[in-house]
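Suppose a colleague, Dr. K., hands you the sequence of a protein chain of 479 amino acids and asks what its three-dimensional shape might be. Before reaching for any lab equipment, you can write down a predicted structure in token form. Begin with the sequence itself:
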Amino acid sequence: MLSGCESNTDGYTGIEGTGDRVELASAYGTVSGFGSVYVNGVRFDTSAAEVEIAGEPADEADLAVGMVVEVVGEINRDGKAGTAQTIRADRVLRGVIESVDAIGSGRKALRVLGQAVYVNEEATFVGTTFDELAPELGINVSGFVTDNGLITATYIAREDIDVAVDEMEVEGYISAVDEAAESFTLMTLTVHIVGAEFSGGTVQDLVAGKRVRVVGTLAENEKNLQATRIELVTKTIENGRSVSMEGVVRNLIAGDQFKLQGITVDLRNADIEKGTISDITTGVQVIAFGPLLNGVLQAERIRIKPLNTQRFRGAVTDINQTDKSFVLLDTAFQVTKFTQFRDESRSMERYFNFDSLRSGEELEIFAVNVADIWEVTRITRKDVGVGPQNVLRGMASNVNDDRSFYIGAIFIDATEVSEHEWMAVRSRSDNTFEVDVEGSYVDESRFRATHVHIRPRPPCDPHIMFECGPRPTPRAHPR
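The predicted structure, expressed as tokens, is then:
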């Protein structure tokens, strides 16, 4: 029902208000845009909503695209719009980066407070960039916690953090409990609980597999956290509510059910979008839609979120308002109600959306090829003339260790390309492959690159986190 698609809701128990019949609703997912707030494809009016970020009162203006929020309110019968009563955004991590590993083009694994944080360049970055992620950088993270303490980051903001005095924050699943030492572990982080304040449960509830949020200070070795507050994280949703919930699949019983944010999801009668039921495996990110009955989310639809996206940048043309599509770099792209919109141009338009697009604007987009259609997961508006001035496309050849190669007869100087992009090029085993190169001409035969993106032929599985095979080449837009 929260999908934004037409569906039969006659079987639901609703409440009558002024205008259309509405349903009580709860939504948990990533903010994709504003005017008011868009979550899981639904526009929630926030004019009367109470907003909270990391436990502190806030305003709607403090929310950002990429933050994971919980919305409680009502949904209109058509499933496209609702009214938020409360919006809560929580951090899953606040700490200092210990290490950074490149795990593929546009993807990195961070180690923070002993937790593994996966992030790709599609995430929202505030005060830093994907390329600037480095050890000793203080960050706070919004995203999704998976099995074994793995975190998928959707929003990263830089913070000045003094590990000697400042409080850290971490959310995850308890790996083991040591009753004698009065501690438990979250991956490689040991949490000491003596003197900690508890909420949502007591010390007796600390068992392996339980999800907790811990606030505390680090010991000198930075491997132990002295907890000041421990919250046992549970989702309490009123029975009968219509629910849309985004998260990572846990405790899967194939073809039957799984856990999502601690809620049991029955998938037996669900329509599967962007994949098949066999694509729903442990660790896959999904959005489940349906009513909560007797504590179980009876999924009517489950949308599998594609994660292995490809980055494009250029001027937008041929905008089609009817089918929500446009052309960029001679390739047709399709916008969905789940597409994220962010304006990083000088105008900083908070309510930037598809209707705001104008031909000739500079866009950076991320898209994934699903069933031979390039669906846009994120659109970022950039300033025209800032950044790359030209985009070359062609077959790369003669790749050299001095960070250079050729496209046809044009010499490409890649010394300004980021390390992870260059390594993706340098590590190719085939002699020639297609690339998009952003930058500017030095002269007629020389080009200075700022970005290089491989255009794989066909594709990595769009459903598997950070695992790639070959990708499809985008279809040219018909002229």
